Amino acid sequence: MEFFRRFSFYGALEPDLRALFDGNVRARRFARGEEVYRGECAGLIFVQRGRLCAYTLSDAGREITLYRLPAGEVCLLSASCALAGADFDVFVRAEEDTQAWLLPSEPFRRLAERSLAFSAFVNERMARRLSDVMWLLDGVLNKKFDARLAALLLEERGYAGGDRLELTHERLAAHLGTAREAVSRMLKYFEGEGLVRLHRGGVELLDVAGLERLASEKK
Amino acid sequence: MEFFRRFSFYGALEPDLRALFDGNVRARRFARGEEVYRGECAGLIFVQRGRLCAYTLSDAGREITLYRLPAGEVCLLSASCALAGADFDVFVRAEEDTQAWLLPSEPFRRLAERSLAFSAFVNERMARRLSDVMWLLDGVLNKKFDARLAALLLEERGYAGGDRLELTHERLAAHLGTAREAVSRMLKYFEGEGLVRLHRGGVELLDVAGLERLASEKK
């Protein structure tokens, strides 16, 4: 249970609730690309390694990324049935081979009902997700497409830990909620500007400072 | 304090916390059109009468309604400084003359830290708002859906030969090849915009011109 010590609530759990948590949480592995959540109520998922991606679908069937859940983050949506007031219609997929922990809905509910520290933790994570989605909405409404694409490339650079991103135009389009063609055109433009170099199945960032300038632009 | 008995947390507060709540909450009135929240941290606002509207702005200055807060609802955003993890950039305005109660940030924070019932209440309301904003985001990224629903309502109007359509949400969803929930939420949004009125087993069209404008919108 060493992994959970990083979460404030864990150290604050009284012995019986700690036992309830430890006795019910279990290790799960998800392969890259595996669908983790499709509406069934799994419970709370703690990401230990890898990354999950919460997305929704347009009625055209296009994927729209809501937010990403890297290591140390928690997936609340997969416990929505245990969250009063939640009415989500989203999916969660593993973006990388992911090592995680699942706390099933029932013990999740009991902990939220009995532990102030745990309830505060859920509250704080939900506020983060609400902030994420509002930020995304603001970006969609206010930011130019080239600025959003530049910001996404910089975010992916953080995940990849380098300038060479193994990412298809389809994935980038899904994260931006747009069409692949639009992404391909803009990437070609970026390449013409010397910001990136395109290679088979990926993008290499050549001018990070330039992308950062672009990402900070507004409409 | 009669008003607060409708909220589950209120009856569950221990005497000292009840006293903390009663001793700090105060009546507020907002005139129709008055800006209630512009980023300063007021605290938690309980709507007793009237209606508040949380919105964001596009750079073009266009207002985008995030959600409405009718009587009995609670405005969390105005207490965001007391919500760990919250990082919102929204505004709140009174849509009608509104009678409300304000619980300032500091007692709000203390109650959330000390009362499980209050923390659970905040959690539940935040999950509702997250659901609202996710749905709105989906609509914004997928504008075609509201246009298609508006077009369908106008088509059904032709069949019905009048503005009162006896049509279940299931039927409309079937026509659109989408989920009933999506239709129900969009119809609620239309109702909030004054385009339709929902009644048992049907929809009454109130603003045909508005629906026609919407139906002609391209993505």
Q: What can be said about this structure in brief?
A:
Two copies of one chain form a homodimer. In chain A, 44% of the residues lie in helices and 24% in strands. Chain A contains eight helices and eleven strands.
Would you kindly provide a written description of the structure presented here, covering whatever features stand out?
The structure is a homodimer of 219-residue chains. With 219 residues, chain A is of the alpha+beta class. Chain A contains eight helices and eleven strands. Chain A has helices spanning 8-12, 15-24, 105-114, 116-142, 145-160, 169-176, 180-192, 208-215; strands at residues 26-30, 35-37, 43-49, 51-57, 63-70, 74-75, 91-94, 98-104, 164-165, 196-199, 202-205. In chain A, strands 1-8-3-6 form a four-stranded antiparallel sheet. Chain A has a four-stranded antiparallel sheet with strand order 2-7-4-5. Chain A has a three-stranded antiparallel sheet with strand order 9-11-10. Chains A and B meet through helix 3 and helix 4 of A and helix 3, helix 4 and helix 5 of B.
